[in-house]
User: What shape does this take?
Amino acid sequence: MAASILKTIACATARSTLPKTFRISTFMHLKVQKRGYDQYRMRYLKEMYQKRLDVGPEKQRRRSEWINWNYDAEIYAFGQRLGEEFNESTLRQAFINRSYVEGERKKREELGIDIEAVPLQLEDNTELAEEGFALMSSYVKVYLRNIYPYMFEEGISAVHDYLTTDKMLAHIAKHVGCEDLILSEEFPVLESTLSTAFKAVIGALFNDKGQEQAERFVRDFVITQLIEKDINELWHIVNPMGLLKAMLSLNGKGEPEPRLLWKSGANTIMSLYWVGIYSDKEFIAKSPGETVLIAEEMAAREAIKRIMKTDDSRAPLIIGRAAENLMLDYNRVNISAEDIIQKFYEKSHSEKNSSTS
Assistant: This one.
């Protein structure tokens, strides 16, 4: 108690008698405790960092090699995380790759175990993957045909192929948590193995919950990959001006007439040309390009996009709750660009024969 009183009196005396700068430093020295600093800490961290560089990156290991791995809990959590109720045995089969079954059989042969006497009760996911891919492929085409009823069948097939590639399905499977659950001999898991597992998950859901639930799963996880994606870029049209000419002719309109609207920087590397396409003196579309030919081709593509109603002002995809009551025509097949060109040539050929006769 006496020591604290003497300390308070000393502080008051110092504030009153000493200069201002010295008084502040003395006050801070009395109020703030000194921070301890380990003089060897920086040297230690540098040494550990150098050792980490010398050893190199950590070896990639399977998730099952970690001490906190529980496969049964992860299988249960997979369905709960996706909001789906799977039959546990079916879901387990969806993650068993064929290479894993073959590897287990080889191990039994090396140990001298009679496979016929003690059969290996494991089935791979090949059959489930085939069922899942058939359902996914069919539903993707049905959905696209109904959402884009004026798009040509070639465009529908191009978008379908983009969504059902191994690369895309492996990307989806990895982000929904399939990678750690797959039982396979190879590691890291290949894209084809991830894709097969995801198809098998769809097949498992189809067997357990029916077609409607499996199609909803495909819509929520596969078709949503088209969000912020220009579907017109997925279909490469070889001769857009020829296709546009055939479309306009079959609709009773005149041939497309490209016209140069304006240009800038024609003699520089930053040249820009705007070409518009007209039919019967009616404006159809316009587009820029580095050259007149490029601008003409891009304008023809823009016109086809407007006719198919897949231009930038198209309606967004119907997904989520809005798609639950979506009435789809499963028998619908869109018109083909090849059929339009064939009809156009047949029409022009018949007109030519009639004019010569």
Notes: The first helix runs from residue 2 to 17. The two ends are 128 Å apart (CA to CA). Residues 159 and 231 are 7 Å apart (CA to CA). Confidence is low (pLDDT under 50) at residues 18-34.
